[in-house]
Structures are given as C-alpha cells and as structure tokens.
Amino acid sequence: MSRLFKRLASTIQVKPLPSKAHLHGPLPASSFPTGYILTGIHAGVKKNPALLDLGLIVSTSDHPASAAACFTRNAFKAAPVVVSQQILTQNGGRARAVVVNSGCANAVTGRQGLEDAWAMVRETDALLPPSVSTAKNHTLVMSTGVIGQKLPITKIVDGIRSQSTSTRTLASDFSAWERAATAFMTTDTFPKLRSRAFTINGTEFRMAGMDKGAGMIHPDMGPATTSFTPLHATLLGCILTDAAVSPRSLQSALTYAVERSFNSISVDGDMSTNDTILVLANGAAVSNDGKVVEIDEETDKDGYNIFRTELTKFAVELAQLVVRDGEGATKFVTVNVKGALTYGDAHRIASRVSTSALVKTALYGEDANWGRVLAATGSVAVPYLDPTKVSVTFIPSDNTVPLPVLVNGEPETVDEVRAKEILGMEDFGICIDLGGIGKEEATYWTCDFSYEYVRINGDYRS
Amino acid sequence: MSRLFKRLASTIQVKPLPSKAHLHGPLPASSFPTGYILTGIHAGVKKNPALLDLGLIVSTSDHPASAAACFTRNAFKAAPVVVSQQILTQNGGRARAVVVNSGCANAVTGRQGLEDAWAMVRETDALLPPSVSTAKNHTLVMSTGVIGQKLPITKIVDGIRSQSTSTRTLASDFSAWERAATAFMTTDTFPKLRSRAFTINGTEFRMAGMDKGAGMIHPDMGPATTSFTPLHATLLGCILTDAAVSPRSLQSALTYAVERSFNSISVDGDMSTNDTILVLANGAAVSNDGKVVEIDEETDKDGYNIFRTELTKFAVELAQLVVRDGEGATKFVTVNVKGALTYGDAHRIASRVSTSALVKTALYGEDANWGRVLAATGSVAVPYLDPTKVSVTFIPSDNTVPLPVLVNGEPETVDEVRAKEILGMEDFGICIDLGGIGKEEATYWTCDFSYEYVRINGDYRS
C-alpha cells in the first residue's frame, strides 16, 4: 500500500490561471452596426448587486429585423429555447429585440418556466418603439445559469420595466454594448464582445456580437425548423448586423457558420440544454445608392457567399473566446483532422480528441502524450481508418518548426525538450492526418482539464 | 477581475483517497478452478524491482482449453491484440496459456511490436508440458502500459525462460494466483482477484479470474470474428474455469457477459487500444459420472444459460473492481436507465451520464446536481425521449429511502440535507426512468472526477 500512501502524501501543485484581462478592451463606437441600442443591468437574479444579470438589445429600425437562430439539440430544452423557437417560426424569421438573463437557466421549470419566459418577451415587447409593422412577440429570449430553479420573474419584470428605449437608458455607445455583454456572463471571467466590418457590392456593413460560456460547453446546435426542443444551456451568443439579409438566407448562413464555429468547440464535452446563437440583420446600413436590398442566396449568390464567409469568421472569433475562457483552462488548443472522406468523419474525430479526459489532462501537464491522441482517434468508428497511414504533429503557435510525433503509423524519436517547449505555450495545435484517404478536414478548438476545472465544478451550486 | 483573483487565491482542498485495502484478501485454494498453474514475476519492464510485471497462466489439462476473447474496437490495436486475435482464429478457439506484461502496452510499435508479441507467444509455448494435441501458438498474449514505447523484449524473454511448468515455479496456490494478478497492475492500487463456484447438471465447477485497469477505462469490446484490429489498452482481464464449454458457446457467453459488465463501466470515457478479456475453459472438473461433456448452446440450452449467467455475474464483479480502483476515484456510482425501447438506447444514455465531466465533478463535490444528469441524458439522440415523462432518483446504498429529485419532468423540492447524506456515501445509485415508453433497461458503473485524477494523468509518463 506504499503507493497509496505516496498519493495521499502528495501535495497538489496548482498552476496559477493566466490572466485573461487582455482579451477584453474598448472598441470604437464606429465599429458597431447602426440601428441597435442595448443595456445591461442588475435585476436581482444574482445575489451580488455588483453583477449584471439582465441584458436588453433592441433594433431601432422601423421594420423588424431578419432573425435566425441555432438552438441546442438536447432533448431537454429550457423554456426560453422553446419560446424563442416558437416566436421565430410564428414570425417567419423576424424579430426586433432580444432579452437575456444570467444566473438562472429557467430549465426544467415546467409550465411556470414557459410562462416566465413569455413574460420576459411581453415586457420587452412593451419597450419597443411603435412602428408600422408592430406585432406581438417580437422579442427573442435567452437564459443561462443553474438548472431546475425558477426565475425570480418579478425582479426580472421590474428590471425590464425600469428601462426605456425612448429615454436613452438603452444606448449605442461602447459602454452600452459592454454592459449588455457583461449581463450574459456566468462563470465567464471577462465579457466577450467583438465587432467586424465588411463590404458587399460596395457598401460597408458592420457586425458586432457577444457570447458567453465557460462550462457545459460542447454545443450541437441546429436551426429551429428541425424538430427538436432544449433545457440547461450554457453557450449563448447574439450577433447583430446592419446588413439586410433575407430570413431564409440568414438562417442558412448561420447554420453553416455555427457548424464551423460554436459546434466545433469543447470545454468539457457536456452539451447544454439552453445553447442558443441568435443573429439579427436590421438592414440599417444604407447602401451607396440609398436602396436597401436584402442579400439572398437565390438572387445574389456572390453577395451571400461574402456574407456567409464574414459571419463564419466572426462566429469563429466569438466561439474561440469561450474556449479561451473555459473553466479552469490554461491552454488553447487547435485540433485539426485532415484526410477524411467526409467533413463529418473529420469533425467526429476532432471532437473525440478534443473531449478526451486523458488528452486534456496531458495538455494540462504539458505532456506530449500522443498515444492518448491516437487512442481517442481510433475510438471513433471510421471504417477506412488505417493505423499505418496516420500521422500526428504538434504545431507551435509562433510559426517555428512543427514537431512530428507519429509518421505513417510509426512513432518518431521525439525531441522531448522541443515537445516541452511547444506544449509549454498557451496556444498550440495538434494535427492528425489520416493519410490522404480523403480530402476533407475539420478543425476543433479545445482547452485543458485542470485542478481548477474540478474545483469550479465540484461546488458550482454553492 | 476580482473574480479571477479569488480563484487564484483559493487553496485546493484535497480529500484523502479512501483506502481500498479491504478489496483484496486471501481466497481459499479450494475456491480456484482445477488444472491451472500461474505465476507473476519481475522481468524488468518496470524500473522498480519490487513490482511484478510479467504474468504466466497455464492450463495443465492434456487437451487445449476452449478459449474466447473480446478485444477493443479501437481502430488502433496494439500488437498483442492483433496477435491474440490471429491465434484464436487459427486455433478455432483453443489455447493452453496466457502471457501478460504490464509497464508497456506494445502499442503503435509497428512491425517490431508484432515480432515482440509473437516472441512472447513462442517462449511461453516452449514452457507448455507436451501433450497429445501439441500445436504451435497455444499462448494468448496481453500487454498494458504506455503507448509508443518498444517492449524490452530481451528482459521479457529471459523472464519467461526463467520459469518452468515442471519445477513448480508455476503453482496453483493462492500466492501464485495473487502474484499473477499483481503482474497485471499498472496504476491499480490493489490486485483484482476473485473466484466463484457454480453447479450445472449436478457437477460443481469453479471460475477464478483477475483483471486490471484504473484509467483509460471506457471499453467497447467485441469478439475477434468481427473485422477490427486495437493499440493502447488499459483494461485487461482473464477468467479461468474448469467447466468444459465448446469454443463457440464460450465466445457467445463471453460476448453477452462483456456487454453487461466490462462494456458498462467507465472511469474516464477513454477507450483503450489494448482492452482484452480472455476466458479459458479447460474442462478439468470431472463430472459425477466421470464423463466430460462440453456445455453447448445447441445441445444443452439450460446448462448453457446457467453458465452464461454465472459468467456474467462474475464479469460484473471483476468489472466493478476496476471502477472502485478508478484513478483518483472516491465514489462508486451505479447509473440505471429504465423505460427505454431498446437495451442499446438505455445503455447509450447510461454511458453518457457516466462519462459527463460535469456529472462526475458534481459527484466528487457531493452535489446533487440532477440538472447535469438531465442535460447529459438529453444530449443522447433518442427520438422518443419525452422530457415531461422523465424521473430521476438518487438511491442510497444502505437500503434507506431513495430520494426523488425529478418526477415526470417536474423538479421536486429536494431535502438538501438528505441529498448530502446520500451523496456523502461512497456507494450510491442514480436511477433515470424515461417514463415507461419501453421496458428495456441498462446499468453502468462509474466513479467521480477528482483532483487526484488530474494529478495522476497530468504526469503519467514522468
């Protein structure tokens, strides 16, 4: 039993978490899309009055914005997911506002949960400026936090009523965007807010957005039209653009983007019940000739493709922030799988490697344990996988020479000093080449598994 | 950033691992099956000369024993897995010996690895007493340890040659069985050895066996006849009986038993490349009338069913020991899923819940966070899953009253004191009732995720 005693006697060395402060900073007001006002307040869902827990986002355009969303495929869908899905379907992909609360997921809350989510919609609808096309249920709703607790709905309703779109409690400056992004946060350590400019057919557009998520991160989201319904969600995101895009094309661009961004990240392999990514396109940016023409896949393939590419890049940027802020994460690792016959095969292998507890603890230990990478790869049922063709390479983030550890199924004599050097970096990559059987590839972003992860999740509710 | 500072300042409280010493103890010599001699020695694969790393098991029966096996379905199969599969197929399910080494998995070792595995077979064959039916390749081989390192084959060959089946270095007393079981160990904290007696048609038989495994435990094993081939394995087991069973029926009984035992446990969700469970049935127990008749599914359904049931119970007993000794484990949790339309659906849900990092950290934190159980349940694609029908109950191990936390999709007002009481036990159960949609159920055994798990796997190779 000396072995057991040795274990008990060992002191656990905790690496200090690197500061993530540099990942958030001010953005110029000019980088935000026009036609949106926002706020974030403390409504009282969270106990600490210094923490924001209610966010409001309103499109000020006369017409409802195009809206699209991807929701968790979890069988247990939280009330806000069910309600937002219904609204999107009823309104044919149009919406004017988003309301979000953190601190409580409003998941597994039965009929009361649905009533509460509808109350949030109704109260936010009441803030909207009157417009030609005013209709009911123009607000999409999101919640994040602990499962199985009822929303403190009176506090939330009071919070929404304390705001007004006419008296400038909602605004469009950086501070307003930052407050809204902060209201999304749960175990996040910084608000996740980014913006981006792009040009289609000579007109400049902008998109900006925020997301949140640190744990229960392994999304698998699809559009509302497929028949599923979610429950305790932890990835929430909202992207706002002043481009004009038809609802149908907005959804197809988002579905494509989400598959290659939010559906390609993992913190802990746990799919949430509330995962939701929303996008609004209000068309408030006036084109050079003053006309607003909706981008549509059928009528302007080139314009659509530019939009889809920009949306995908932006979604990747937001998704990566979640991994960087993963609970207890000290590493940001890009897993790239090449040489598959289908994108789906490459994606499944990248996902398995990215969620392997043994791979993730080795990453934390800065141990180039490629055997674990291979074991995870081989555990995915891909019939054409040939062990004698597979190569694994560690890719440093500083553009220095990559380190092959396995070439065509044969282990290399690994320079352990160099391996330590690469794995000592905060960012690095693992490339798994299946060996030219196919030409498809997929990329996943993951983090390591640390003592901090266990600590955070061993007492999350307390 | 005060939140981040708080994290950095926090001291990680490490719960001492409970001693597992009581899980191993002497067994009476009369409880072992007749006709087997064994040993375990230090051959030099492991650095520490006090640790055994080479085990030998020989059936002394005049005729080769019936043999069956289940191997990992990992695409990367270690050399010993490939070799044992070939031998079993070539010999039509007969074998006379087993050789096993720990300390090195002989996985991803290319052609040299296969040659080394064959050398272990050849050297052990040479120890076998001559018999009427002597044939080549009557030894099955297993290895466990680190991936990608070559076997120190000279040391292993010397170790095998130092033994002899005629001069009693192999023996059948408890000490010999214990040494063999000890030679299987890697990060295990105790040797896993059990025995069992059973009666078929008036004759008493015995089975005994050993297994090992503590990490990279999430087996998915099938018989050798399906076309797959494995690589870094961490679950090894060997069951020996003095019953006579036809090779075909031995395989079908083992496949059934493994599905409900070793394929229903998880420590970390990582499927290994070397997972192997072997069974030998040498027929050395003489029936009352002196005749040896092989149990066969076709000719004696009742006898076969008794054997299969006994084998399954015994496999469950051995499999549970692996979970109890899971790396860093402080809990032994039984996950039971009821009310599914198929065993496969129930098994997939039980597996997902058992591997969820969030569920496992909550178990470590003794937090009755049923929301995480539900989120994991809902992340399995089972089309008929109806959230409003699902119930979740925590089951104490002391036969006191179970604690329902969710009934027909509605959260109960949970008595947190009682919840803490149950989750404070070393053993307890989680029952997930899908709500009577079907009648099938499956049981999984899992453990928690602790700081110790991260520590052990953050520096496994060093």
UniProtKB/TrEMBL annotation, chains A, B:
Protein's name according to its UniProt entry: Arginine biosynthesis bifunctional protein ArgJ, mitochondrial
Keywords: Acyltransferase, Amino-acid biosynthesis, Arginine biosynthesis, Autocatalytic cleavage, Mitochondrion, Multifunctional enzyme, Transferase
Function in brief: Catalyzes two activities which are involved in the cyclic version of arginine biosynthesis: the synthesis of acetylglutamate from glutamate and acetyl-CoA, and of ornithine by transacetylation between acetylornithine and glutamate.
Protein's organism: Mycena belliarum
UniProt-listed Enzyme Commission number(s): 2.3.1.35, 2.3.1.1
UniProt pathway: Amino-acid biosynthesis; L-arginine biosynthesis; N(2)-acetyl-L-ornithine from L-glutamate: step 1/4; Amino-acid biosynthesis; L-arginine biosynthesis; L-ornithine and N-acetyl-L-glutamate from L-glutamate and N(2)-acetyl-L-ornithine (cyclic): step 1/1
Catalytic activity, reaction form: N(2)-acetyl-L-ornithine + L-glutamate = N-acetyl-L-glutamate + L-ornithine; L-glutamate + acetyl-CoA = N-acetyl-L-glutamate + CoA + H(+)
Coiled-coil region: none
GO biological process, one term: ornithine biosynthetic process
Sites annotated Cleavage: A233, T234
Family indicated by similarity: Belongs to the ArgJ family.
GO cellular component: mitochondrial matrix
Site (Involved in the stabilization of negative charge on the oxyanion by the formation of the oxyanion hole): T144, G145
Annotated substrate binding sites: T186, K212, T234, E327, N457, S462
Assembly with partners or alone: Heterodimer of an alpha and a beta chain.
Compartments where found: Mitochondrion matrix
